Amino acid sequence: MTGNTPQTIIGKLWDSHHILTDEGESLMYVDVALAQENTLHAFTALDKTGRKARKPRQIFAFTDHYVPTTGRAKGPAGIPDAGIRNMVIDLQDMANKFGVTLFGMAHEQQGIMHIVPPEQGIIQPGLFVIGNDSHTSTHGAFGCLAYGVGASEFAHVMATQTLWQRKPKAMRITIDGELGFGVSAKDLILALIAKIGVDGATGHAIEYAGSTIRKLGMEGRMTVCNMSIEAGGRVGLIAPDDKTYAYVEGRPYAPKGKAWEQALDGWRALASDEGATFDREVTLDAAQIAPTATWGITPEHALPIDGVVPDPSVVKDDKKRAELETALDYMALRPGMALQDIKLDRVFIGSCTNARIEDLRAAAEVAKHGKAKVTTWVVPGSMAVKRQAEAEGLDKVFTEAGFEWRDPGCSMCTAINGDYLQPGERCASTSNRNFRNRQGPGGRTHLVSPAMAAAAAIKGHLTDVREIIK
User: Considering only Cβ atoms within 10 Å of each terminal Cβ, which end of the chain, N or C, has fewer?
Assistant: First the structure.
């Protein structure tokens, strides 16, 4: 609280990192910077000027977008595509040159850049985190300001440990009530985006609040914050609480001893003050959310699984009608078709949205009830998740159900690593984007939760998971 004025957590975090303001933009101190293979442009730009990273110990790099998820015994040398291989090798070389910590292909903690940092305790409440990837918003689940930035901005952060940003408006989304049977955090965020639209939070930093959010585990909170970008938000965050502290405590980069107690004192103040004013408020009733799937080409095109493909002809708005017609044409669907009649060619369980241990447990619980009727890949989000899943026997559950168990990476979410759909193939995916060509040229994507993806795999079509795990 500034004086007698109640503050939002967004305002508190902004003020604690603000250095100065010039022409409406603020120069902000950056605590942690996260890089992946596409950040090479930033490293190269800095290298050409002869400058060094100002605080290399606060920069972490990850091989995830370009690494293959099979056949990794030979390391980078075993990647058949020269372009992909060079991206992996070049990041390795640049990280070494600039003294940046690299979670590379051979690292025992290798994995996706939005999964490994929380696992390692690199992400802690109260930080300003940037990453050369839009889904850096994931880390807001820990009560952080977490931004995706471009390569030029990343180079600026490397050189100065600061970033120019325009302060976003504050938006609070309050979700109260109990999630129903078979309903997950992924269904929650898809239902929210369907309600407010892909531009519903444009220009805003979102605080998620309410009893439903508090009941989510950290994995579920990360899923929600991860997809804030798909609602147009710049940032999505959740005030830290005892679940947050318990998750962070004891991890390699987490504070220890007296430093831990001091950190807790500061973290407990990271909450919106009673009476704090938000620029926009949205509410959602958790009891109204059902298992959900997308039918079109944006995350906004989402419906309860017992719904039907919409009919553009009844839409009065010309722009909206044209959008729906374009989506139907690309997805090769007809109006009025039941979502559960949509047949699939593939299923993908993975990505920075849903490749954590809680996600794999949910998928495995469904996989026990049948055999895959379509090609199904399960790609853990990190080596730590892979090891834990194997220790729990989840890999055997998947393989016995005919699912393919693979190595960590972004895999088919980004389709730039050798894992992609063929033109016209249709996939139920636990990733975060169903844009045209996202999972491969001409590929068609339906976003679902891990449990819904596993249900789709054993039925061969989009399916209500509640019919399998009754």
Answer: C
